[in-house]
Design goal:
single chain, mainly alpha
Amino acid sequence: MPKSRTRSKAVYTPPSRPAKSKVSPRWLVPAMLTCLLAGLAWIALYYITGGSLPIHALQAWNLAVGFALIIAGVVLSTRWRQPGRPSLGRRRRGRAAHWRTAAIVIVRVGLRRVPRQGSYPGLRPR
């Protein structure tokens, strides 16, 4: 029987990543919160004062200014990196998975305790 060829190339090893995690600049969180709260306050002030404040000359464009500030806050929030956590590391089972499991359990238990026949068509009490 013929002998198989041996591999001439070495096995690929990806380049190592730097151990330093990305950290957001110090100004990012205050700027993000300021934009979000200022946009909310701008819109609320416009509605509460009946359009006379914040800037009367803008009229309905005051809403656009408020929403632009909120959108700027959301854009800044996507740039935020929490120190000490990997940005796109391995996925952990988060709260959503636990809530989904709890909802399935509640639905299953709830279906067992049907109060009277006919309240849920097609289901009979056990």
